[in-house]
Specification:
alpha/beta; 6 strands; about 25% helix; Rossmann fold; Methyltransferase; SAM-dependent_MTases_sf; 6-stranded mixed β-sheet
């Protein structure tokens, strides 16, 4: 299903701490979300409101974001939610304990995307923000196993590359090495 023209060239959001958000990541994520979730669904998007949660709202999804709580310590937003679907776009890699979070989700559907561990690059750690770091950089099988152990069945998944406009060995490797992994899973009864 082709994306609306307005999402083919997503502009950077002025308030973001990143230099830009990859257009491909947003396009692939939106396409996958629309494939599995009706727009009239109530979504709990883990993480504070961000440019992608705004795009989901523009597309008609009813989105509530968490408020910046430490989800390793405070599961109240998840436990108290009556949403239909939980989305976790590039969130689990920041948690020390994604197992407990996944076990406590009451919704029956979840969509998770993660940056995949790259063999040629170290784990991400911001030089300026002590909270912006990846505790986990998953391989696809690790996320699959985590979901299975926490009572979820993967219905669909997809991987994609994330080329960058730079010159060098690592940028070259990014042309054909998958960087993102997204899954749609349902709770096992």
């Amino acid at each position: 299903m082709p994306l609306p023209t307005k999402y083919k060239f997503i502009k950077p959001h002025k308030l973001t701490m990143y230099k830009y958000y990859p257009k491909k990541r947003y396009n692939e994520t939106l396409r996958f979300l629309k494939k599995h979730v009706p727009t009239n669904s109530n979504l709990l998007d883990l993480g504070v409101e961000n440019p992608f949660s705004k795009i989901m709202k523009e597309e008609g999804f009813k989105v509530t974001n968490t408020s910046g709580e430490d989800l390793d310590e405070n599961l109240a937003p998840i436990i108290n939610s009556d949403c239909d679907v939980v989305t976790a776009f590039e969130i689990l890699e920041h948690l020390l304990n994604p197992y407990t979070l996944l076990k406590n989700i009451k919704a029956n559907k979840i969509i998770i995307s993660i940056p995949l561990r790259l063999w040629f690059s170290p784990a991400y750690k911001s030089k300026t923000d002590k909270w912006d770091r990846h505790y986990h950089e998953f391989e696809d099988w690790q996320l699959d196993w985590l979901l299975e152990k926490t009572g979820w069945e993967i219905i669909d998944s997809k991987k994609w590359t994330n080329p960058v406009k730079k010159i060098g060995i690592r940028p070259f490797l990014r042309l054909f090495t998958n960087r993102y992994y997204i899954v749609y899973a349902e709770k096992v009864s």
